[in-house]
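Usage example:
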Amino acid sequence: MRAKRHWKIQEVLLSLPSLFWLSLFFVIPTLLVFAVALRPANPYGGIAPGWTWANIRSLASPNYLAVAWRTVWISVLSTAVCVVLAVPISYYLARVSAKWKNVFLMLIIVPFWTNFLIRVFAWKVLLHPEGAIKKILAFSGLVSPQTSLLYNAGAVVLITVYTFLPFTILPLYAAAEKFDFQLLEAARDLGAKRLQAFFKIFIPGIRRGLITAVLFVFIPALGSYVIPDIVGGPDGEMLGNKIAQRVFVDRNLPQAAALSVVLILSVLAPLAAILVLQRRRDKPASLLEVR
Amino acid sequence: MRRSRWPFVVTMAVLLFLYLPIIILIVNSFNASRFETGWQGFSLIWYERLFQEPEIWRAAKNSLVIAASATALSLIIGTTAAVALHRFARSRLQGVHFGLVYMPLVVPEILMGISLLMVFVAVGIQLGLFTIFLAHVTFCTSFVAMTVLARLQDFDPSVIEAARDLGAGWGTTIRRILLPLLLPGLVAGGLLAFTLSIDDFVITFFVAGPGSTTLPIRVYSMIKFGSPPLINALSTILLVITFAAVAISQRVSRSRS
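Running the assembly step on the lines above writes:
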């Protein structure tokens, strides 16, 4: 009995620092966002006393709805492009010789040692009206000289894909590494076409990695702020930009909090869906397959 | 069986896609032209200009101080968390604990930024380097805990009991058994925390308040309002530093194993 209590005290003592810190700087702040969303703003950028539904109601304005819709489709499209590119890469990496595998993995990770802002900036230069890509495209007649490659939703998708592609490749590669490729040969021997074997055997075989990869892109994409801010322009604005505008431009924290509540709920939805799906399909497993 | 060439082609195309912007950026940093309109000869003028900007040096110093202190504190909190999660894995408390440590990893940065801002405003704490430090410790802790936990899962907890049974005191057990076993995880977690802290822009931007700059905040305002060639030069320098750091840390970890 004493040993058991001793064990318990040890557990509590070891857990205390992180429980304390994360409660103070993660749980309470998140709850506070919900509370502030229901408070009126005062004109000096602070929070006024009393309670109101006004911030929540104002979310239904057509402007916010348009931005919310854009946020969703940009995130879905970026996730889809990342996965479509990363699946063949992970397939290739899992089959190539060990020496080349390490070289390629290194090459995929290295660009991401550079600062995120700098990578976005590099694209801004590249897509600049006077930049190389624009000149080539205009010269070959693919775009008219007036078309801007920057400051639209397309640029946001392109750079979101650029930023998150490695986070898609790594979990998919880890899953493909464990996949038994003899299954593909067996399927072919039994008469499956190449593509049929790929979609019916390989894709279900790396399902876990696929789920992790989708989450690693989709959730941060929903909360994007820097990418649309630098290359999106007014036509590429996302929810994150609106939150930042309420904070830094109009100093309206309650309105920013209301928008953040929408973002929190939209992040929790896919997470909860996947947890439920995983629990139903196979034994409970952590989402953290790779790290 | 003949293999499809598609996976190879996609891999090569994606590698080109990954490197093109970075290569153009490095080349442009040596371009004498003020605008990205074409090559006007090799020049180091942007590097010279960069060294005359005191703002950048101040920001770099702030970044280093915050990264070092946030790494130190998050290593302590994150490691105790990982040890608890590992040793008491079956308990209900650790289920909650794991969720708490895991959530900051999945929540988009902007949410963490704005929620911390709300707390700091509500409490009335002055925004500045100290609030940046508090924010950085928060997200670094989760990354450290997960990194150390991943290493811990590779070793058998009974070695600790064995050491105790054989008469080692707690001090000896920690020093001779636990720390050496944890060291690779601590180094990896520490490096990760340091890089994340020094690279963070979004959360920092929300809790920095006016007047306190870190390197990423400085880079952001240069992107927004400053001259592109200067950023090219700064980026190239940062790139060289990161590559050197990674090369050294790899050399160290290789010689260790």
